[in-house]
Amino acid sequence: MVYPIVKYGNPVLETPAATITEFDTPELHKLIEDMFESMYAAHGVGLAAPQIGISKRISVIDASNGESPAEKLVLINPEIVHVEGKQTSEEGCLSVPGFRELVSRPRRVTIRAQNAKGEWFEKTGEELLARAFLHETDHLNGRLYITHISMLKRDLIRRKVRKMQKAGEWS
Ligand code: NI
Question: Which residue segments constitute the domains of the chain, with CATH numbers given?
């Protein structure tokens, strides 16, 4: 099932999500399937559950855009355990459509997370994958990428979004 993507302005995106405590259930497997489906339908490389209105600590990532099944990642209750270096490039978010901003992030990131069975694993990513680890973990902490840009740029986005909301072009 493809869920609609929740947009900036909805409080669920700015609320820390709840820890997942039950694993390997039909509900969890269905949620993971639906999250991948919703992410591919929206042409994203990552999706966090709050973005489909579900305030739980789970996100999916596929930096290959559906090209390579081996790159499908499910991160449950993820924690960033190590960061190093620096990269600056454009970042966007399915929940803030139509905007992209330069964001500086660490270049190499190690994440620790649980899989659908509840087993812990660690994974290190660089560049785009490192950025996705940070962006998606931020989502689960109620934080959007625009909190990493200047207040001036953030206010500009906020004003444009408010205009679109008034015009009924943003819901
Ligand atoms: Ni996002």
Answer: 11-166 (3.90.45.10)
